[in-house]
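Q: Got a minute? One more chain.
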Amino acid sequence: MRVAVVGATGFQGGAVARLLAERGQRVRTLTRAAEADRPPLRGASFVGGDLADLADVRRLMQGATHASVVMPLVYGTEQVRQYARNIADAARETGIQRIVYNSNTRIPAQSTNVAAFETRRIAEQELRASGVPLVVLRPPVYLDNLFSPWNGPALVTEGVLAYPLPAGTTAAWISHRDLAEAVFAALTVDGVEGETFDIGGSESLTGDELASAFATGLGRKVRYLPLPPTVFEQALSQVAGAEAAAGVAGIYHYMATGTDPLLMAGDGGRAADALALKPAPVDEWVTRQPWQVWSTEAS
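A: Always. Here it is, folded:
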């Protein structure tokens, strides 16, 4: 394959680009960054440009056979619609054979006033309207969010796992690597065009069950601390900016209402069966991470 990866300079898209390159696929991505400021992404080539410019997106897609798409952390309705429409138009015009769209979140069946859900729903609709064969992946929450400067030190030194989901909410936590495996499968497996999959890890865990899995992986006691979404949003805004933080935090404000407590849960194995996926159990993922870096950071 020759794959145009939209979002390869971010965490999820970067994981996809790395896995594709590891497996001998040709990868190209779009970036606004100057050449000197582009992140190291072995095996990928860069096209300078912006998703807001149809000509730039065409140049990204030209000569590609497939596309993997995840939207940047923007939540303006018309901005996201324009990005998605440009991707859809460019994919159709350049003869892309299949698009895999990672919505970066589950999406409720009913409409909401949450921008993080509704803008991703709009992007999905625009891509589907292109007529290019589409596979949609809707992940729940990422384990890699917990291997971070915000969680790592507290986990290693205090055994505290803080996250803005209610303790009783079940979630099928998934790693970026297993997300990338799902994207690769969705790009290559026959007969899944047109499907939407609620992908996730091998287990649906409450907060306490997640802490227990971390305790097994870390070899120490771990307790779950449900973080208020407002606290999460304030902390994220220091890194990502107020607009992006409000967009991301909207998901957790919604989950805190209890309106849709199973939104992030497993799908009964449907996605794993259709895409032949075997996501790693949480405790195994935990064991593989170099947690000592946070111990050093804390000291």
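A: The beta strands are 2-6, 26-31, 44-48, 66-70, 98-102, 134-137, 160-163, 196-197, 223-226.
Q: Perfect, thanks.
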